[in-house]
Every structure is written in structure tokens, then in C-alpha cells.
Amino acid sequence: MVLYFIGLGLADEKDVTVKGKEAIESSEFVYLEAYTSILMISKERLEEYYDKEFILTDREYVESNCDEMLERARDNVVSFCVVGDPFGATTHTDLFIRCKEMGVETKVIHNASIINAMGITGLQLYRFGEIISIPFFTENWRPYSFAEKIEHNLARGLHTLCLLDIKVKEPTEESLCMKVKEYMPPRFMSCKTAVEQLIEAAKENGYEQYNEESKCFGLARVGADDNKIVSGLLKDFLDIDMGAPLHSFIICGELHPVEEEMYEYYQPS
Amino acid sequence: MVLYFIGLGLADEKDVTVKGKEAIESSEFVYLEAYTSILMISKERLEEYYDKEFILTDREYVESNCDEMLERARDNVVSFCVVGDPFGATTHTDLFIRCKEMGVETKVIHNASIINAMGITGLQLYRFGEIISIPFFTENWRPYSFAEKIEHNLARGLHTLCLLDIKVKEPTEESLCMKVKEYMPPRFMSCKTAVEQLIEAAKENGYEQYNEESKCFGLARVGADDNKIVSGLLKDFLDIDMGAPLHSFIICGELHPVEEEMYEYYQPS
């Protein structure tokens, strides 16, 4: 029959599109991908909204264990729900290809993701360079490669969207080799942590292109009623509490006049 | 009261989010912006769907004549509907700022736009560089500056999304100085025209970084059931009919293995 790839959007159960809602309602089985991002609501609230079971899938399931879902999609209408837009993460293209191999029809229902919703800052989407990801540093693993990408963007006057690390259902180091894994509590990088790491990386690079005085935007809970968008210098964000996750961060390139106006608009009062 | 900025999404009346639909239903006045992009349906179909009048606004209205809308939003719930996500185009940030100045509350309801929906190609969104716009060349105006941006992206192995020109409600040259303007029929650039112009610009630049053999994607009607996504070499698109608008185009940088697989997936059969 068909496997729907459905974007759930950014914040809650009402961010799904009408088309997506109808697809979920028409489905015999509904899967929920919940490891590359999170909605700001629980699975239970989704289940209540639809009066339907949502089968939670983790990275392991989607990457190597999704036969059950695909087999079901052979003879049933099945929805695979993803927070944001369905094609933010690699593994879903794998699924797409496997559907074709198995002769299962696919239909994609798009939605907002941070990659376009960040337009709410007033920064123009066509003035962004390469997107970077900032991973949680560990004691022995402190990769600074993102700084080089920021520098390249800035050299061309372009803004940089920084996606901040999310750790959901990560096995503990101790359980990595065990059959039954134990999982760490979920962690979501804050703008503050991102900025600490950005400053460390900039120092390492001799503060070449960006520094503590660079103009930035912090974004939290975009799409939710209690969203928070703040402009400020990089160092300011060491002291700004952006509240609950998810956070994203932007390092500004050259600001055009309208962008400058929006930068002022979002200054903390 | 409040001015809602509502993204209508990509294709038809059911691409609005549930939240957006409820906002429109609760509004005393609903405005429709229809000059930076188009839905694949008519205003009448939207009006039927909501049983409500949609007041069409053009560029002139939004940029210099929107006092009526803002005044109404002082005391009423008003929706300003935009195809895609509300913050694709500059002028809406102007509106945002004017609302603040007038003490009108704003609420943003996000949606998909081509900038994230292009993920359906399987190309990874964090591997894109600066987005470019390709304008219709005229006899005397053939700007090649987009080629230089593509070259910069390619030098770093990054993909380039090309937004293709849309001309909606453009005054005719003859009527430019007249009080009552006459308008040209709407024009939407096809992938074929974009490729002709891309090749001309590449020739001009001595085929430095991209050429007729560069790998590309053509996208048409993304988000609609009859969408068409095709991979091929730049020159192939001179002969590929992508059908009705809207079209977008992507010039690939380095393809990672999963991306290569999706490139094969979308080869015309």
C-alpha cells in the first residue's frame, strides 16, 4: 500500500498539517521517530489527540530493524512521523530507498523545520552559508572543525545556523558492549554550552573571524507559544537563560539594513 | 489584538497546519500574500475551504499600503497568510516591526518551504551553501553573479539551491510611469530556462567550476501529489519537461554515498 513520511512540525500536536493529520487518521499503523529531534509534547498527548497508538522507534530500529514497518506498509497504510520535516536526517533517505526496492509506495508530507523557521529572526534565508552542528565536547573529544566552516561563511558575509547537539537514548559507555543496553538521560545542548564551546574553538583558532563580540541570535522553542528569540553578542549568551530546550544558535555575517533592524528588535529589553 | 503570520505550505489548502487553520477560522479578516510565491490552487478554493473572504494583497500593498490591515489588527484577530513559511521574503519582517511599533501582538505559524522541503531529493540540508536566485534575463540585463556563488559553494563541495524567478503582477514597461498600471501575465521560470541561463553564465566564466556535465536535480511542484523530482546532468535538463510550475533547481557539490544512491533513485527511467 503506502508508507507516509509525515513531518510533525516544531512544537505540538497541532503543528501537523491537515494533510498529515488525515494521513495519520487513515493509517493502520503509526510510527514515531523520536531521536533526531523532539516535539515539546509527549507521545501520550499525540496518542490522545489521534486516539491511536504511536509506535516509538529509535535510531537502531530505523537504521537496521525496520522490516516490520516496511512489511506492514506492503499491505496497509502506514505513517512514519518525524519531528520537523521528514528529510532532516540521513536515515530516512535509506528508508525511502528500501521502500522502492520493496515496491512500497511512498508519500511525503512536508512541514517546517528549524532550517526555514529560523527566518523568524529576520535574517534572510538566502544569506546563510553552510549549516554547522555543534556536538557535546567530552574530555577527550573536542572537535573544532565547525569553527573553520563559520569562518568560511563569515568571509563571504554569510550567516551560520548552528544546530545544537541532542542526545536521546544514547547507551552508557559501560553498557556499550553489553547485550542489554542501558541509556543515559536525554541531553539537549543549551545556547550557553554552545557558546562556551564556540569561544573555546575560536581561541584555538586565534580568534580569526568570529570572536566574543560577534553578533548572534539565540533561539529557543521555535514554533511554540513560549518561544524565545534573543539577539546579542556571542559573549552575552554566557549569561542569558534561554529556558527549556530545544535551542538553536546563529552567528551573523554582514547585516543588511532590514536585518540590522530585526537585530535591534530582538535585543533583550 | 493580534496579527497572525501564517505559512500555508507548498501545494494546496490542506498543507496549512491545524494551528494555522484554527487561526484563520478565528480571524475576522484574512489577507493572502500572493506575489513571492503561489499555491497550486486558486484563492477561490481557499475561500470555499474556509467559507471566508481572502483579501488578496500584492507587493505594493504589503510594502507601502498595509495600514488598513494593521489598523484592523489593533482591535481584531487578523491573519496574514503567506505561501510556504511566512519569513521567506524581506517585506514580512517590515510588517513584523510595524506591528511592534503599533503595539499589535504578532504570532507566527510556521510551515514548510522549498528551503527545507528540497530534502526530499536526499541531499543533506547541512551540505548546502548559499542559496542563489536566478532572475529572468532580458535583452539588456544578463547578470551572471549567481555563477560566482555556485563556484564558491562547489569549491567547498557544497550543493546549491537555485530559486527560479517568479513574475506576478509586474507592471508592463509602458505603464511604469502611468497612474493606472497594466500588468504582464504571470511568468514562472522553468528548469529549462534556468539551465539555459546557467550555461550562458558558465560559458562567460570559462566553465570554471560547473559545466554542462555537472550533476543536478530538477524539482517541480514539491509538496503536491504530482510532484516531479529528476536527477541528471546540467545539459540533460535542456530536454526534460518538468511540467507546470513551480520549479526549483539544485547543482550538486560532492555527493556522499547516500546522496549518490538518491541521485540514482531519481534518474529518469
UniProtKB/TrEMBL annotation, chains A, B:
Catalytic activity: 2-[(3S)-amino-3-carboxypropyl]-L-histidyl-[translation elongation factor 2] + 4 S-adenosyl-L-methionine = diphthine methyl ester-[translation elongation factor 2] + 4 S-adenosyl-L-homocysteine + 3 H(+)
Binding sites annotated in the UniProt record for S-adenosyl-L-methionine: 10, 85, 88, 113-114, 164, 222, 247
Keyword Methyltransferase: yes
Keyword Cytoplasm: no
Name of the protein described by the UniProt record: diphthine methyl ester synthase
Taxonomic source organism: Euplotes crassus
Documented EC number(s): 2.1.1.314
Residue ranges constituting the Tetrapyrrole methylase domain according to the UniProt record: 3-236
Stored SUPFAM superfamilies: Tetrapyrrole methylase
